[in-house]
Amino acid sequence: MNSPMFSFQWLPFVCLIFLSSVSATLINIPRLSPIGGKFLHDLETVSASISDDLKTFYYDQTLDHFNYRPESYTTFQQRYVVNSKYWGGATSNAPILAYFGAEAPLDGDLSAIGFLADNAQQFRALILFIEHRYYGKSIPFGSREEALRNASTLGYFNSAQAIADYAEIITHVKETLHANYSPVIVIGGSYGGMLASWFRLKYPHVALGALASSAPILYFDDITPQNGYFSVVSKDFKEASETCYQTIQKSWSEIDKATSQPSGLSNLSEEFKTCRPLSNSSELKNYLESVYSTAAQYNHPPDYPVTIVCGGIDGAPSDASILEKIYAGLVAYRGIRSCYVNEPRNISETTVGWRWQTCSEMVIPIGRGNDTMFEPDPFILSSYIEQCRSIYGVPPRPHWVTSYYGGHDIKLILHNFGSNIIFSNGLRDPYSTGGVLGNISDTIVAVSTVNGSHCLDILFAKESDPEWLVMQRKVEVRIIKQWITKYHADLLAYKK
Ligand SMILES: *[C@@H]1O[C@H](CO)[C@@H](O)[C@H](O)[C@H]1NC(C)=O
Ligand SMILES: *[C@@H]1O[C@H](CO)[C@@H](O)[C@H](O)[C@H]1NC(C)=O
Ligand SMILES: *[C@@H]1O[C@H](CO)[C@@H](O)[C@H](O)[C@H]1NC(C)=O
Ligand SMILES: *[C@@H]1O[C@H](CO)[C@@H](O)[C@H](O)[C@H]1NC(C)=O
Ligand SMILES: *[C@@H]1O[C@H](CO)[C@@H](O)[C@H](O)[C@H]1NC(C)=O
Ligand SMILES: *[C@@H]1O[C@H](CO)[C@@H](O)[C@H](O)[C@H]1NC(C)=O
Ligand SMILES: *[C@@H]1O[C@H](CO)[C@@H](O)[C@H](O)[C@H]1NC(C)=O
Predict the structure, then answer these.
(1) How far is the CA of 427 from the centre of ligand 7 (A)?
(2) Got the DSSP string for 255-270?
(3) Domain annotation covers residue 287
(4) pLDDT of 24-50, one tens digit each?
(5) For residue 101, is it within any domain?
(6) pTM (2 decimals)?
């Protein structure tokens, strides 16, 4: 079983995730990124062709939108990127599609999040990408080192400040373009999707509607069962292959058994071809857990990483031991490498930033009972709080998200309040368990796909996309068009 330090639920959400950054040794939480490992290659070619149309700007952003202390007035440069190639212009009140950066530098999103560019032409829309504060080039306090120094400087790093930033930049862009009556659709994935949906509720005068892709806004407090995340990971593997699921389920005690032998760890290090000798069995277990979680979260077509892992496990020679099969699965997923498991890497901005975010505001209680293919590892709030306090000197506020944005009884609360939000999910994404999966009203709707993965709908469309994904995007576009058409009619009726 994991020591508490390792049981931290900290894999970020980014729509994009790169394995090297998933298995942060210190912390181990499913990430919330929109983009997963294997997409990167395709994306680079895409970005080369679109980058000519992108113009980068910096906005003088206010450090603290909510107080009037001298320090609050400090400013920093916040990056945003505009593509006006398809825009119909201010005179026709043509729309703006605004993407909300999440817990990563904006660069990866520019080359991966295709929903805006793919649809800008038919909407005659301006495209706007905004970077989240404390990531990439949008760093307050003059340097990253200073910004991340301690809780005094990190204190301005939270979602309320971030969406206030977005409101200011959208307003600024509209003023600059004299596009006061251009409707704005905000789009985000994962944590960025949460921001988009919350933004529509808090800033209806700035955004006409929101597309919130894979946004687990209900994975707070006790709204979603702790084991939601890992039960979907397990289900994905079971559906791909029952024998693969069973092999993984049995492997944890095999690792323990191997470790308890004399020179067991060095034997395991050899068997898994680790880059450095293993210090303990958790090092291997955590790594394998993050491989399976990442494969499930980013289980996208056409390659379906879960199928790849299970192909390796099931394809091992029939006399292979359980751990030899596990190793074969790892090699199938990661490819032939000089070594595995504790590969040298630099800790990513996402890992560092998300650690603070999850230790302050974004407390997402992911734990495991005995109903998954993993070892039990319950989420224990009190030890989580203590670990965060020991890192940052201040404790998290696990209930703030639901106090500030809501979440409990969401259908009861929102069916009569709010409008124009699409919650899109792929039900093979483990984070979908914390998503909105049912329609709340005529205009707060859930658009899910049975076989979809994390943030799939907002990535660039590809030739090889299956029909269900093409359909999901079509439904989303149709709904957004309805919002805009209604808005333009309202504009004629109300704006005298
Ligand atoms: C953070 O660091 C600064 C500069 O070293 C110091 O003045 C401040 O008191 C520190 N804050 C906390 C909470 O430790
Ligand atoms: C190492 O593992 C292999 C098979 O997994 C086993 O046959 C061998 O006895 C082990 N060696 C040691 C020194 O534990
Ligand atoms: C296991 O080894 C890793 C890497 O050396 C170390 O960071 C961690 O604290 C160890 N965990 C336990 C439970 O001893
Ligand atoms: C880590 O970052 C340094 C400096 O940017 C770079 O030279 C090095 O190759 C990186 N290492 C890995 C493993 O990515
Ligand atoms: C799983 O946990 C439940 C509740 O703690 C317990 O009743 C059940 O016996 C456990 N099942 C197994 C297979 O250990
Ligand atoms: C919710 O409504 C949308 C739009 O009408 C529809 O496409 C979708 O299938 C509905 N979702 C559910 C879960 O019923
Ligand atoms: C989802 O995938 C499974 C097999 O992986 C397939 O049998 C099923 O038809 C798919 N469902 C949809 C709605 O495409």
Answers:
(1) 11
(2) HHHHHHSTTHHHHHHH
(3) yes
(4) 323 345 556 665 544 333 434 444 455
(5) yes
(6) 0.93
